[in-house]
Design a protein that fits this description.
Number of strands: 20
Strand content: 15-25%
CATH class of the largest domain: Alpha Beta
Radius of gyration: 23 Å
CATH topology of the largest domain: Aldehyde Dehydrogenase, Chain A, domain 1
Shape: globular
CATH architecture of the largest domain: 3-Layer(aba) Sandwich
Distance between the termini: 52 Å
CATH superfamily of the largest domain: Aldehyde Dehydrogenase, Chain A, domain 1
Oligomer: single chain
Helix content: 40-55%
Mean pLDDT: 97
Strand order of the largest sheet: 12-13-14-11-10-16-17
Length: about 475
């Protein structure tokens, strides 16, 4: 079992270019992360390609057994992983944060192992017999983000390995240590060469990964502009893609909702991981008849949720992971203020304090086309837009080019389902927002990407369908 110190030592760079890693809550130096180059990437692809045939040949049950052992290893080292994650990413240990994320790694790995994917008999009658088999693609290139670096890496790694592929993963530059540590723990039980990590710059290593003709599948979670670049770079090789891209999720509160009853779930829908979640609630539309009550109850709940250094056990909100994201949130809130919107909570960061803390911020009486509404803030600032007409608000919810998630809040389930059916999103939740289940497919509509992860659909997405007929 690793301690925090032994885990950090195990992944420390052994020469070559490095960069400093600092805690976004305190600015304390944590350690050094490697900055690897294209030569290191090519070596990792060589290793993965060499290991893939024997990994595939093990058969499904042997790979399932390995994945369960990997889940055991993550679970055994959960506290050290959570501490490193908290220090590097900034999220607190408690609440739906670092310990929760490491637990999610265990759950998603076990689910990828347990999900059955038998041969499908398509027809079997006098006309003939046809079966659908699922074969490995080869080497999967995974590119993971900085907001949920461990768990999203597992979303990419676990199904890929289950289906007989090997993996080369490139973590986000600002959370490389978290992914290096996760891979180190898993590789204590996995066969050599099956899972490989290369930590480097996106514009160098990430770009080379997406262009490589030896990568059969790219899995990427990140922004829509970067996703478009991946599509273009991978097109000459017809590389298979799963892209989970930017979201600016809308929630619609219908006039029959109970403001007091929904306040807590509204808060966590918008502010989980301090708002740094692709499928977080980022623009909330509330009917005029209950607008003031919803705002009142949401503010009352929000002002009592503690924010601070992640290693302090009482905190459940942390800093923004990097200063660039802090600046985006700050710019958008200032834009809303300048346009006459009301900041009823927060909006007043201490620019001289250590860390990237932006206070929990709720903005009301805001124009539906203000920058804070139409741009993805990806931080702890929620605009609440007043509406009166249902048709108008459905139009506002659907008018943006993204569509990852959405939600409808109502005491009338039938009415909520009716509205949900008209929203353009990969997922629409009823009376909650952002909850994920490892068996329920997840992905985006419109420019929030394509492809689905999790469950049976997630396994199929990292396999080559092969029909055998006759």
């Amino acid at each position: 079992m690793e301690t925090y110190s032994s885990l950090l030592a195990a992944i420390a760079p052994q020469g070559g270019e490095t960069r400093e890693v600092r805690d976004p809550a305190t600015d304390e130096l944590i350690g050094l992360a490697p900055v690897q180059d294209v030569a290191a990437l090519e070596a990792a692809i060589d290793t993965a390609a060499a290991a893939q045939p024997s990994w595939a040949a093990l058969g499904d049950q042997a790979r399932i057994d390995y994945l369960n052992r990997a889940a055991d290893a993550i679970e055994a080292n959960a506290e050290a992983l959570a501490e490193l994650l908290s220090r590097e990413q900034g999220k607190p240990l408690n609440g739906p944060n670092a310990r929760f994320e490491v637990g999610g790694c265990v759950a998603w790995t076990r689910t990828a192992a347990a999900t059955p994917l038998p041969v499908e008999t398509i027809i079997d009658d006098e006309s003939g017999r046809a079966e659908m088999h699922y074969r490995p693609i080869g080497v999967v290139g995974a590119i993971s983000p900085w907001n949920w670096p461990m768990m999203i890496s597992i979303w990419q790694i676990a199904p890929s390995l289950r289906m007989g592929n090997t993996v080369v993963i490139k973590p986000a530059e600002t959370t490389s240590l978290s992914v290096l540590a996760l891979v180190h723990v898993m590789n204590q039980v996995l066969p050599e060469g099956v899972l490989n990590v290369v930590a480097g710059e996106g514009r160098v290593v990430g770009a080379a990964l997406t262009r490589s003709p030896r990568i059969g599948k790219i899995m990427f979670t990140g922004s829509t502009p970067v996703g478009k670049g991946i599509i273009e770079a991978s097109a000459p090789n017809v590389t298979r893609l799963t892209l989970e891209l930017g979201g600016n999720d809308a929630g619609i509160v219908l006039p029959d909702a109970d403001p007091a009853a929904i306040a807590e779930d509204l808060f966590w829908g918008g502010f989980i991981n301090t708002g740094q979640t692709c499928a977080a609630l980022k623009r909330l539309y509330v009917h005029d008849s209950i607008y003031d009550e919803v705002v009142k109850h949401l503010v009352e709940y929000a002002k009592n949720v503690p924010m601070g250094v992640g290693l302090e056990e009482q905190n459940v909100l942390g800093p923004l992971q990097n200063r660039a994201q802090f600046d985006i949130v700050d710019r958008l809130v200032k834009s809303a203020k300048a346009a006459g919107a009301q900041v009823v909570l927060g909006g007043d960061p201490d620019y001289d304090a250590p860390g990237n803390f932006y206070p929990t911020t709720i903005v009301t009486e805001i124009d539906p086309h203000n920058d804070l509404v139409i741009e993805e803030q990806f931080g702890p600032a929620l605009p609440i837009i007043r509406y009166t007409d249902l048709e108008d608000v459905i139009g506002l919810a659907n008018e943006l080019e993204v569509g990852l998630g959405s939600s409808v809040w109502s005491s009338d389930r039938a009415k909520a389902l009716e509205v949900a059916a008209r929203l353009q999103a990969g997922t629409t939740w009823i009376n909650s927002h952002g909850g994920l289940h490892p068996m329920v497919p997840f992905g985006g509509a419109k420019q929030s990407g394509y492809g689905r992860e999790f469950g049976v659909e997630g396994l199929k997405a990292v396999a080559e369908p092969h029909v055998i007929s006759g």
